[in-house]
Write a structure and sequence with these properties.
globular
Amino acid sequence: MTCVAIIGGGLAGTALAYCLKRAGAAPVIYEASDVLASGASGNEIGMVNPRISALRMPESDYFTAAFELALRTFQTLGDVDWDQCGALHLMTDERRRKQYPQTVKNWGWDPDRMRLVSAVEASEIAGIELQYDALWLPDAGAVSPRKLCAAYADGIDVRFGRKIEALDELEEEIIVLASSVATGAFEQTKDLPIKAVRGQVTQVNATHLSKHMKCNIHYGGYAAKPLAGVHVLGATFQPWLDHSKILPEDNQVNIDRLCEFIPALAGEYEVVGHRASVRAASKDHFPIVGHIPGHDHLYLSTAHGSHGIISALKSAELLTDMILGRPYCLPLDVIKILSAERFL
């Protein structure tokens, strides 16, 4: 049986453990804290969408495959708060008004799965008045990243309180670094362009108008359909910060953006929760997945950024193929742009 050490108990690490165990391997997760999903993966609600681009290219092929795998997987995992309520991506500026029609044209998805809608139709879909035309993705939705990590790690050997300082501490022959920003702290990865990006989400009570929202709405930020009477609004994007302290002004930023882009919901909102965390991103804002150059038994799954919910799972499937010598689930042009070698 192939034994694999996975450093990190967030989405990237637990998704890989899930895939490896299903394939008959023996994964062990080493987590520095005393809980899973202690970082960015610990949010209660996360949006599930492909990363949208105007052109069909290897990057979009990757996120399309990741989105499809996530849709198939989440409905099998039990209590992860998976809600396939759909998502409206509002055309709030000239860039989006140009990009989204190109997305529909070049991606070639069936209209039942992706189409442009007028502001009137978007309002009917959302259950609230909207002022912008939109891209409608009825298969999109939301899930609990925290619960997702727990579901992935069910039955996995997880060793808490194990902060790995050097890789020679580990007995396993195969090692995967899946510890977000901390992935770059090792001698073997110190030259990779992994950076921290802080984001804060805000939980607010639904109002007598917003409680009628029937789907998630994206406008640069996002407003999640209410769950138990509470919306999650997010998220700030602060690549100049690397801490997870709560900033009260960020709650107001999230509320102000909601009111700006959905004027029908403008008003006073009661903040009932918030969470800030630090994600890992690469220089080109694309994940880093695969072998660590020059180290045959060392692998990476990091820099998943704001689409880590779907990206971590597809990367886990690819790494499982690599580690176990199976046919790859992705074409070579996609694997090449995921590789750390692109930065060398």
